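Progress against Task 2.4 (sequence-to-structure conversion) is shown through the following example record, which the project officer requested during the mid-term review.
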Amino acid sequence: MISFMKKMFRVCGLLLFMLILLTACGKEELPEGGKVYNIHYVNKEETRTLTREYVSDTEDTKELLLELLEQLAEIPAKLEYEAPLSNGFALLGYTLENGQLTMNFDEHYKEMDITKEVLVRAAMVRTVTQIPGVDYVSFTVQGEMLADSSGNAIGTMSADTFIDNAGNEINAYEKVNLKLYFANEDGTGLVEENRRNVVYSSNISLDKLVMEKLIEGPMSEGAYPTINPLSKIISVAVKDGICYVNLNEEFANQPYNVRADVTIYSITNSLVELPNVNKVQILINGETGVYYRDKVYLSDVFERNLDLLTVKEE
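Structure tokens generated for the chain above:
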């Protein structure tokens, strides 16, 4: 009986050793002392991003950047993963200065549809901003700043630029920081209102977003509305650095105690904060040859005016 029990212990021990050995063989060998990075991909349905862990012991910023870019271009083994840099366009080059990475692509980058482009962009930005020393990323196409569907420059991005919903899905929503100008308490001057991480659909141009937020009114104490909330945006467009803002007739009616020039420069200064806007032309029902509240002639093209800026009273 004792002999039988000894044999059973030997057999169980041998089986346990083999199980441990098989488990160890099944594990992926990872470099010792390396750091784990998440390589971001687009799923085959092009509805969300997926991640895969990648371990590197590279410490030099530029070498690590090259290494992760190579990973973004390599076709993954998993069929449901789509490499961001293998979508029919080419990365022509990149520069890294003072934490700002600029990636320059060829003209085929623009051939992606809106949703896929946002996913590809999010995957690349989220991957490379894990690198110490890469804080922000901007995209250019043939040397020109990447623009949205309305022609507005997208500007610098970070990992927080892109919004996830349930299931790590990105539905073409982004974040942006806005500097808006509203009236002071007595309506004779302007005050700044800085809004961080404003969530918006990438299908909406930034100039239209600014106008929508101005019409909605301020969110902070010491700032007061400048535009009739019944005003409707007929159209907003930027051409050659001039933003053309066409509003309905309700814009001419001012329910607030705000000077006419304060309203005009509330719009102008807020829009000129955008990188692609230098001047503003305001229209009412498509007409410029009219006076706003019998004070300001709208045929003029307006430029930034900070003389009206006052300190916000908290």
